[in-house]
Amino acid sequence: MTTKNYGSELARSQLRTLIDDAMTGAAESIIERHGKPAAVVISYDRWLHMETERQKKLQRIAQAREDYQTGNYYTLEQVKEMFKAEGLM
33: which strand partners? Predict the structure, then answer.
């Protein structure tokens, strides 16, 4: 994927191009303000994929916390013993 950098003024004047590039997959655009990255223009599909993955990670973290609080976990020593029993260590 190609990445293009734009100053905020140029991005404003070229917004249609930035959107078209993102939608077609031609490029993702980084918009800078005062020479520093401020925003990124990506396709909706890419954003949706990233958001879906983020939600999955948050759910796994919440599940891990719940497992820990309820004592549903293995210690490092237990994992080592299981690996040894399976011949993996």
Answer: 36
Which CATH number characterizes residue 36's domain? Answer: 3.40.1620.10
Q: How far apart are CA 26 and CA 72, in angstroms?
A: 47
With DSSP H G I counted as helix, E B as strand and the rest as coil, what are the percentages for the chain, rounded to 5? 60, 20, 20
45's tokens: 């599909």
Q: Which SS3 state, helix, strand or coil, does residue 23 take? A: helix
| Three-point CA angle 47, 12, 37, nearest 5° | 55
- Contact call for residues 12 and 38 (beta carbons, < 8 A): no
Are 53 and 73 members of one domain?
Answer: yes
Q: Quick one: pLDDT band at residue 43, thresholds 50, 70, 90?
A: very high
C-alpha neighbours within 13 Å on the C-beta side of residue 28: 13
pLDDT for residue 1 is more than 90:
no
